């Protein structure tokens, strides 16, 4: 027990130093896996376990035992129980046990004015009943259904939190400050995801540009509120996955996406909260914009030129990602380790870097697990300053 306590303290210090612009003793490893990967790795039935999530402990424990990481290598952001209770169209479980997000929308173009005037009210009264069918009911039934859904939500995440706490104690992982993590979106992404949908928002920027601008402005306070955890901390984390920008013309990005997104990140940083961006797909043409964000914003890149990113952003911001999940599937062990060495040589000098993959491994067959283990062990051993 004493050894794991000391190890946890050392690993926690790695990230404290990283987030404060100091060079840590070694390159921290921040790899995480979703429950689907963990269940498959433990040879468990995805559907059965997702309806009885207490069994997740066995799967999570096996992953923690076998894969090197300085943070607990487990993550969860949705469970099927509360989606089913609410009659969700937004996230549905397929026959293979994977929760999928279909293309849909909850707001019609002619309802923009109502949304802009009172976005929260419009979401509650119009959008949610369309996307969660069991909320399309009389007030008493709606209230009872919502109560059931929220009870399931808190129960599931309390169970996950308890399991994660056990793993941290057992394996000596880094510890985040309590109540310092949450999630939000860039305002434009929030509207694109389920308010208007990918197709809808792409048409709206041409047909109703002023409405889109006003809608982004209207939801910005909601995103800032959602992105502020109960106890803000620079050692905490507000996760913001960035979706739509790579699919936009640069002039549209400058007009519709960037201003409210930048304001959201700045507002969170001003509260002392750490911000983690998952920079999805190709953001290379937007690096100069990303540089403008508050110092030590964490940016995990899915794609791009790590040398250019290090050159442009590495002195101000914290970088991770880039390691190709596809190589772990197709490459030899030597090729995989060589890639890890290449990224360490490019990104580690001067600090402000921690090791992670370009995306989360969702299925076991998306990687060769022996390659993955070898890479993590290599980075843990060789990623010293």
3D architecture notes:
- The radius of gyration is 21 Å and the shape is globular.
- The protein has 17 helices and 7 strands.
- It is 54% helix and 7% strand.
- Strand 5, helix 13 (287-291) and strand 6 form a beta-alpha-beta unit.
- The protein is of the alpha/beta class and 385 residues long.
- The percentage helix is 40-55%
Number of strands: 7
Mean pLDDT across all amino acids: 95
Estimate the strand proportion: 5-15%
Distance between the termini: 28 Å
Strand order of the largest sheet: 3-4-5-6-7
Q: Would you identify the regions where 5 or more consecutive residues have pLDDT less than 50?
A: none
Largest sheet: 5 strands, parallel
How many DSSP H or I helices?
17
- Secondary-structure-derived class: alpha/beta
How do the helices and strands follow one another from N- to C-terminus? HHHHHEEHHHEHHHEHEHEHEHHH
Question: Nearest-angstrom radius of gyration?
Answer: 21 Å
What does the overall shape look like?
A: globular
